[in-house]
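Holo prediction — adenosine monophosphate.
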Amino acid sequence: MAENLRIGIPSKGRLSEISTELLADAGLSFRRQERSLFARVRDMPIDVTFLRTDDIPVLCAEGAIDLGITGSDLVNESGAVVTTRLKLGVGKCRLALCVPDDSGVKRPADLDGKRVATSFPQITNGFLAGHKAVPHIVNLSGSVEVMIALGVADAIVDLVETGSTLAANRLHVLAELGSYETVLVQNPATPHGHIADRVARRLEGVVIARAWSLLEYNIPEAKLAEAEQITPGFNSPTINRLEQAGWFAVRAMVKRGEVIDIMERLEQLGATAILETAISNCRL
Ligand code: AMP
C-alpha cells in the first residue's frame, strides 16, 4: 500500500483551479512543479495527483487514487464503483437531449435509428432504451454542439449550464437526462479510511461555509416567533435577551442565496441592525 493517501484532481481547466482552491481553503496546500504528476501536501500524509477529469472515476475505483475530485456526470457515465463522499457545491449542470429548433424530432422515441452525438454514450443509450429507441451513437469527446450543423447528428446529448451554448447553436432541450455537480469520490476499499474521513470533513466545512452566511438582528419580543420561522438556522437560532426591555438579539445561519430576501422580510417584520457575516470555515 502507498504510504500516503492519494487524492486525484483535474490537471487542467476550470475544475483544476476550483479543486486547488477548495483544498487550500480546507488547509490542504501544495505547490505543483510544472507538469509534474504528483505534489506533496504540506504537513499531511497526502499526495495530490494531477489527472484527466474523465479518468478520475476509473482510477479511483481501481485504487490508483484513494480520493478524487471530478464531475458526478463522469462517475455515472463510467459506471466506476466508487463512493460519493461529498457534493462540492460547484460545477452544477444538467445533461440534456437537444435538437434543432426546426427539428422533426418531437420526443425521445422519435430518435429510434437516428444519429445522436454525445460524450455520454452509456447514459444516452440507457435513457433512450427507456423510450424504446435505439439510436446510432456518434461518440465524441467534446464540441458536441456543432455536430448537427456539421451534418453528423440529428440530436445531441450534452451538458448544459446556462443554456447559452444551445441558444447560439439554435438548439433546444427535448428532455433532461440528469442533474450533476462536482463531487468528492472515494475508493470503497481504501486503506487510508481515517485520513480520507479527515479530508472529507475538512472539505465539508468549507462547502457549508461557502453555502451559508451568519445573520444577526434585533427583534421585538412580539415578533420573535415569526422571525424564528424566517430564520430557523442550520439547527436552531441563538437567541439572547437585549438590555433594552422587550427586545431580543437573534443569530442564525442562512443560505447565502436567500440572504437578501430574508433581510427584506425581517426588516418588514420590524427587525433592526440586520447584519450578514460571511463564514470562511466551519464544523457543524
Ligand atoms: P452553457 O452554455 O452555460 O449552457 O454551457 C454549456 C457548455 O459548457 C457545454 O459545452 C458543456 O459541455 C460545458 N459545461 C457546462 N457545465 C459543465 C460542467 N459542469 N462540467 C463540464 N462541462 C460543462
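READOUT: The chain has a mean pLDDT of 97.
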